[in-house]
Write a structure and sequence with these properties.
It is built from two helices and two strands. By secondary structure, it is mainly α.
Length: 88
């Protein structure tokens, strides 16, 4: 279902979305407003949160909505946590 150029997922009966084996550094590829600026980062594995010379962070507030970026950061932290406990 398209909403203002985006997409909405309806997942009746599900309380969370499983990201399977998604790596934290790959999450940004699912954000179109980030994807087009990934080649402006100094580091290829940049997750766009704390790295210096990031090509994405300066866009927050202008091309990337701050709330959307905040949710992105939370998702990255969740993926990192999942990765730490992958083989527990």
């Amino acid at each position: 279902w398209q909403v203002c150029g985006g997409a909405m997922l309806d997942t009746p009966g599900f309380s969370l979305l499983d990201t399977a084996e998604l790596e934290p550094a790959d999450l940004c590829k699912y954000y179109p407003e980030m994807r087009e600026h990934l080649d402006h980062c100094r580091f290829p594995e940049c997750v766009h949160i704390t790295e210096p010379d990031c090509g994405v962070k300066p866009l927050v507030g202008s091309r990337i909505h701050p709330e959307r970026y905040s949710r992105y950061c939370k998702f990255v932290e969740e993926l990192k946590e999942k990765r730490r406990h992958r083989y527990d």
